[in-house]
Amino acid sequence: MVGDDRRALLATPVDARAGEHPLLANNHGTYPGADGQDVLWQALDDRSAVAFVHPAELPAQPVSGIPAFAAYFLLDTTRAAYLLVRNGILRRYPNIRFILSHAGGFLPYASHRMAVTLANDTARSPLGVLDDFRSFYFDTALSSSPAALPTLLAFARPGHVLFGSGWPFAPTPAGQYFANGLDTGVDPGTLTAVNRTNAQALFPRLATTRPVPPPTPPAVSELAGVRHHVRGCVHRSGASASRSLPPGPAPVLTGKWRRDSGRGGRMLLGAVTRAGRCVRR
């Protein structure tokens, strides 16, 4: 795994090597932060890379009735973050910025519990462990709920929360639900930071791209005027066409009536064309 990742990194164009590099939270049971990965971390550190950690299937038998994305993905990301901190990867390779998907899984919620465990295991200060946990970046994909979002914002360092949607893998209604939770759950300054400026700081090239403003809807009075103009054009052109049709009941398409109906159809087509020209004016 490490050799393949390093070769892929070295094959990346130089101007893109400082960009985002996706990593699975586990690869057949091997997690980031395990022994034997220093070559990969050194290559990423040399390039000040951003590593995006996304969960995968847990290396264990699934439990019937529990979809992976509902709980296992969160545990998978949490395991990866735990090992990266426990084995000192963040401190030994400080130029790597790690983004954890889905608000870091269970990390913000259980960070103090894990810090106490790691402090006992490594003889480090619990506050130092917490500081390492807070140094991760977090995206908001499927996580901007009234329960999860306040915890994430209270835990993460300023500037370390980035917008995420889960698209295209998450169902669109789910993505919309959580995006709406972000739009309505934070103040305007925080919303701007999560949606754009935090990412600009992490990826400076994005700061040179101006955001595309949403289209401004026309005023109600303007819409009413357009509708009135269109109705007038259609009415005048339709009346002209109706005067050109043969009188009497609907024609049967035989003999003379076929010729008259063809003429009427051409007149109706002409009326539609005139209506279009009128609308464009």
Give the structure's gist in a few sentences.
It is built from 11 helices and 5 strands, in the order αβαβααβααβαβαααα. The protein has helices spanning 2-10, 38-46, 68-86, 89-92, 107-122, 126-134, 148-155, 172-185, 188-202, 220-244, 255-280, and strands at 20-24, 50-54, 97-100, 137-139, 161-162.
One letter per element, helices H and strands E, the order comes to HEHEHHEHHEHEHHHH
The CATH topology of the largest domain corresponds to TIM Barrel
Gross CATH architecture of the largest domain:
Alpha-Beta Barrel
Spell out the CATH superfamily of the largest domain: Metal-dependent hydrolases
> What is the count of distinct domains?
2
Largest sheet: 5 strands, parallel
Report Rg: 30 Å
CATH class of the largest domain: Alpha Beta
Protein name: Amidohydrolase-related domain-containing protein
Pfam families: Amidohydro_2 (PF04909)
Region (Disordered): 236-261
Organism: Kitasatospora phosalacinea
Care to describe what's here?
The protein has 281 residues and is α/β, with parallel strands linked by helices. It folds into two domains: 2-208, Alpha-Beta Barrel (TIM Barrel), CATH 3.20.20; 221-280, no CATH class. Helix content is 55%, strand content 7%. It has helices at 2-10, 38-46, 68-86, 89-92, 107-122, 126-134, 148-155, 172-185, 188-202, 220-244, 255-280, and strands spanning 20-24, 50-54, 97-100, 137-139, 161-162. A five-stranded parallel β-sheet has the order 1-2-3-4-5. The longest helix is centred in the last third of the chain and has 26 residues, at 255-280. Mean pLDDT is 80; it is low at 10-18 and 250-269.
